[in-house]
Amino acid sequence: MRANSSLGSQLLRMGRAAGHGSVDGRVRFVALTIATAVLAVTLLAAAAAVATYEERTERGAARTPVMRLQEGRALAEAPLRIQLFLDDVNDRQVEVVFVDPVTSDAPLPPGVARWPGPGEAVLSPALAADGIGDRYGHVVGGIGPEGLASPGERYAYARPVQGRLTVEHAMLATGFGAKDAGGFGDLATVRSLSVFLTLLVAMLGLPAGLFAVVATRLGAAGRDRRTALLGAMGGSRRQLALLSTGEAAPALLLGTVLTVPVMTAALVTDLRIPWVGYVLAAADMRAHAGQLVCSVVVAPVLLALLVVLMHQWAGPGRSTRPRGEGRGRLVKVGAGLCPVFLGILSWSPTAFATYGASQTVVLVSLLGTVGALATLPAAIALLLAAAGRGVTELGRRRGYPGTLLAGRWTQGRPGYLSRLVAGVVIAVGLLSVVQVYPSMHSASVQGALDMRERFGHSILTVQLPHGAEKRTGPWLEKLPPGAEVALLDSTLGLANGAGEVREGPDGPVEVKQAVTVSGSCGALRGLGLECPSARGDRDVPLSGATSALRALLPASVKQVGVSRAPFAPRQGNLFVVYSPSGDALPLGKLKRDALAVLGPGALVESVGQGWIGGAALLSSQLRWVTLLGVAGVALVALAAGLNCLAEVVRFARSIAPVSVVSGSRRVYASVAAWTLAVPLCVAAVLGALSAVWVTLPYTTPPRNGELPPQMLTAAVAVLCVLAVTVASLAALSAVRESRRWRPRHD
Question: Measuring CA to CA, how many Å separate 248 from each of 12, 19, 255, 387?
Fold first, then answer.
């Protein structure tokens, strides 16, 4: 046992010494250190996401009202009357829970120390920081962290004036703490955990995996020779694993140490994610500290296993030449799977058109994207290896020693080619996805922004809540001087612009939407409508002169009725308040007055706010795609750079003696062109073509994303320039090495 232990220690020390003494040992050390840190951060991000979702769901369930009464109790005896209200502050969604505790001992929601009095409110810290003042009532306190889905959530509890919430117009609850979290606050706007983790794997996990593979195989020729030598001497798989682990251990440990401060910061304080702005709660991380620590510890273990697996055991008594058959088989398997993933991408547009953007379709589409990007390098490597036979034949026929050597070199090294082109292919693919995905929604976002630019806050809509019809007079008296008011009355409600289908005696009948606009002559003319000569209704077609109404109404409404009749508001009506001069109306004050006078549910919005709020929410969600995508592209570029640097060192050392045989140093340029420049340029072109296929789920109807050809052209041009630069550096390095090279005399 002691002898085995001593041998194991010696092998670990030998591996560490071999790593320091190898030609490109420093490059590999840096690459393995970064790969370990990147993998640890990726696993840490996944663990943090799981922890955040779990804790957020638990807090959401704890604050969800229980809509259930005990047997034998009347509806009027419910201790809580609740009404949910959605508002916006700076285009960010705000959820307000109007609650009226009927009894003094009514249960409190989490994070609230006491019930606010009538006309009072308690706000989340983020909402209070927005400076909304007393919009929902006089602020008498805040909501604690245990009552919020996330530290940055905008949430409020408000108690309306007595009598504003009646049994008929409120939800009746017995307390808080449902079994399942309801769709309140941030919980109603976040994507599912599976979608986020899939995005994380696609944008960050795949580049991290590529980085790990490249790092473990940097300078592989020398280690493959040591592996074969150890096998020929009778070494076992365990001894080979110890040798490989000893070589990589210092870099793996350093990469892990570099990740510890990131984990510690997440456990100690709330962290704001750059660019996205989401606040990561330290309390959530501490509740799952074990899995965070495990994610950091697992990263070097996975890298060590990868190092061992990527350097195969040659077996006793075998040749000491490096073996590439196993890795060649792996490349062939990857190339064989590539058409499967490309088929999934081809099917995705049909799936989106048939089933919509369901969670299953989205996940399968993302799987196709990740799989295609992961296997495309293998397919391209096999094509390049096959082309190497033609290069070899060309060199043989023409008598070009550099071409002959390069052809022989490439045709037998699919693993080398796969690692060489992987960075180029994945970088172009990720860059295309990051470009295309947000562009799918650019039309709706731009339309909303154009509407805001045109109307601003000069036109507002006010939706009447239940039972507020009799309170419209006092509210109208609080409007700013000079503001005009019109009333929209719709037969179907303004949300149903396409009409609705109802069952008639002879089958389905489509009921068209009819809209009537009532108001004074001044108010009607301000909206671009002619005032009727006498009281009564008349139909007026919508035209360019009625741009404000056109922006308010669905496209299916082609004309409106115009009436000079006095206001007779009813449930479902919509008031239009506008400034004839085009100046902005005091939106905050109007919101506060409407909630105070008309009651909970009085929604005051600028024109197109629904689109603008949705666009702002979508934009904040797409920031995750941009953040992870840019980080992934940066990792791929760094991996490709380190790989090319190692190839330059390897090329210079291995090709140095060739000039003695060929009689000319020009052979270095020829070999560098065929083994580095040509594969990288071909990979750039094929990567651009494959990017078109990879983005099919986002550019093919029913989706409308755009992949600018200028971006692909620029990417290919830049990559080709870099390929020529790398090849030139390799050739120059080989020339310098050839001047120092001398035959060894053993």
Answer: 10, 7, 11, 35
Higher-scoring residue by pLDDT: 573, 208: 208
Measured over the CA atoms of residue 491, residue 496, residue 497 and residue 501, the dihedral's sign is negative
pLDDT of res. 511: 58
Single-letter residue type at 669? A
Kindly give the pairing relationship between strand 559-563 and strand 515-519. parallel
The CA distance from 270 to 126, in Å, is 14
CA distance 127 to 89: 8
Look at the alpha carbons of 592, 594, 599, 605 in this order and tell me if their dihedral is positive or negative.
negative
DSSP 201: I
Q: Which of 53, 63, 75 is nearest to 192 (CA)?
A: 53
pLDDT tens, position by position, 435-485: 887 777 656 666 667 777 888 888 888 888 877 778 888 888 888 888 888
> What pLDDT is stored for residue 471 in this prediction?
84
Do residues 428 and 723 lie in contact, with contact meaning Cβ atoms separated by under 8 Å? Answer: no
**SS3 of the chain: helix, strand, coil, percent, to 5:** 60, 10, 30
Write the pLDDT tens digit of every residue in 257-296.
999 999 999 999 999 998 888 889 999 999 999 999 999 9
Contacts of 470 (CB under 8 A, 6+ apart): none
In this structure, what are the phi and psi dihedrals at residue 481, rounded to the nearest 5 degrees?
Answer: -60, 135
User: What is the CA angle 633-637-641, rounded to 5?
Assistant: 170
Decide: 716 and 684 in contact? Cβ < 8 Å. Answer: yes
- What pLDDT was estimated at residue 237? 65
Query: What percent of the chain is predicted at pLDDT more than 90?
Result: 14
pLDDT value at residue 519:
83
The predicted-structure confidence for 642-658, as pLDDT tens digits, reads as follows 777 776 666 666 665 65
Pairing between β-strand 120-123 and β-strand 138-142 as defined by DSSP bridges:
parallel
H helix or E strand, kind and range, residue 282: helix 282-287
Cβ neighbours, 10 Å, residue 292: 22
CA angle 10, 16, 19 (to 5 degrees): 140
Contact 560, 537 (CB under 8 A): no
Q: Which helix (H) or strand (E) holds 18?
A: helix 2-21
Q: Which residues contact 359 (CB under 8 A, 6 or more apart)?
A: 192, 194, 195
Query: Quick check: bond before 586 cis, omega within 30?
Result: no
